[in-house]
Amino acid sequence: MFKKFFCLLLLLLTAGLTMPGGAMAQVYQTAAKHAYLIDWNSGSVLFSKEEDEPVPPASLAKLMTLEVVFHALKTGELTLDEEFYISEHAWREGGANSGGSTMFAKLGSMVPLDALLHGIIVQSGNDACIAVAEGMAGNEATFAQLMNKRADEIGLTHSHFVNSTGLPADGQVVTARDLAVLARHLISEYPEYYHYFAIPEYTWNGITQHNRNPILGFTEGADGLKTGHTEAAGYCLVASAKRGDERLIAVLTGMNSKKERSEEARKIMNWGFRAFTSKRIFEPDEEIAYASVFGGEKSEVMLVSERPVSLFMPRAQQGRLKARVQYDGPLKAPLEEGVEVATLKVWNNDKLIYEAPLITGESIGKGTTTQRALGALKELLLGWF
């Protein structure tokens, strides 16, 4: 029976590195009820406030609709020139007469997917979302099943979707942390479609509408993602900005007005870039730690990361980090090189601020009879103690 081991990573603790979050994050304040700010490259958490409390998503649910569409485009199930029918349901529930956000698609018309993506992202069109949902799955309820399946696959652990638009519905909830995971996934997995989020305006059916993202054109490097608003959710935003090699993702929900949303979004982005800087800790394939091996020609295997290990660090404050490598072990030989076997986790006080998979940096063959016997004796003695 394998036991779970924790290997303390002393290198980070003693390197005199700056501490993410910490006192600087405690000093920062926001009027948003829920907030989450992360570094896109590393996933380091720079600020958090009630990030795991479920809330209604409003139009931020459209990001999950877009994930389903982008995934279908990437796998070849859809093409951008494919046309979707604007049904009476899409027109009544999401059109001009509905009172919500719309791209003003005509009843009974056929609209190319490329135009619908503009309508969803730039104009936040509910009619565009419903048309896509009906075209891909027959109805919104079935499409919501696709949304939840993809949400599970990409790691949204506390979110549930009922429709494609984010319009109020029982049981439809998200968390700020999950929305940040979703935004990071969209940027990483679908770079060929991310440019849609930065389009400033779009015209359809003779009506021009401007992108509702309040930081586009007003905050340096801002290039996405989506706003939302309902009475229950308040004014919400998932935003991203890139400056040089650094990119931040911010999630803010529960604000009281468009003005407050705009001010809080610009403030947290500018603070994040000003107060933090990226610090590379390990290069790809650089030795990070060792894990115990049972029955092998060697008793330990080197662990490395496929990607650079970087943390977003406060510029002015020094501190100490707690870092551990977690795995189920001892690992059983033989082991091939490049197999994911462990996870690197870094905490600031009780806050998990970084998590990344680790792989074996070498192959370990099966040991001789004597080596296996000595390994078994070692495990037995460890068990006694």
Task: Give a written overview of the molecule.
The chain folds into two domains: 120 residues, Peptidoglycan synthesis regulatory factor (PBP3), Domain 2 (Sandwich); 224 residues, Beta-lactamase. 30% of the residues lie in helices and 29% in strands. Strand 6 and strand 7 form a beta hairpin.
Would you spell out the secondary-structure blueprint of this structure?
Layout: E1 3-8, H1 10-14, H2 22-27, E2 34-39, E3 45-49, H3 62-74, E4 83-85, H4 88-94, E5 110-112, H5 113-121, H6 126-137, H7 140-154, H8 176-189, E6 201-204, E7 207-210, E8 222-230, E9 234-243, E10 246-255, H9 258-275, E11 276-282, E12 289-294, E13 300-304, E14 309-314, E15 322-329, E16 331-332, E17 340-348, E18 351-360, H10 369-384
Helix pairs in contact: 3-7, 3-8, 4-6, 5-6, 6-7
What does the average pLDDT come to? 88
Largest sheet, described in full?
7 strands, mixed
Q: Which class of secondary structure composition applies to the elements?
A: alpha+beta
Q: Specify the number of helices.
A: 10
Any idea how many domains? 2
The global form is globular
Note poorly predicted spans.
1-24, 379-385
Counted beta strands: 18
- What is the class of the largest domain in the CATH system? Alpha Beta
Just name the CATH architecture of the largest domain.
3-Layer(aba) Sandwich
How much helix, percentage-wise, in residues? 25-40%
**In the CATH hierarchy, what is the superfamily of the largest domain?**
DD-peptidase/beta-lactamase superfamily
Alpha-carbon distance between the termini? 17 Å
Rg (CA only): 24 Å
